[in-house]
Amino acid sequence: MRQNQLLMAPPHAVEVTLKRLGANLRTARLRRNLTVADVAEKIGTGPRAVNDAEKGKPSSGVVVYMALLWVYDLLGQMDSVADPARDDHGRTLAQAQERKRSRQRKGLGDDF
Fold it and tell me: What is the pTM of this model?
C-alpha cells in the first residue's frame, strides 16, 4: 500500500503552520485549565488524537482540529481564513482569466 507523501513530508509552510496551530490549541487548552482527557471526552475522541493535533501532526484529521477550535470557542475566528472576499490573489487570477469580447455584440434592430 502506498503511503501518502503529503503526510510523510508536507510542504514546509504547511508543516510550520500545523505546528503553530497545535501550539496555539495547547495554549488554549491550558488557559482553560483543561486536561487532554477532558478535551478528548468533550469532542468524542481519545487523548492520542488531541496530543497529535497539539503537536501539529499532519496525520491528524481536520475534524480533530476543527473540534478543538469548537470546544475552545475559537471556531468563529476561522471564518476569515477561507473568506472569498479576502482572497485578493484569487480574485486577481480570476479577473486575468476572464475572457474579453473582441467586439461588441450587436442586437437585433427594428428595421426588418
Answer: 0.73
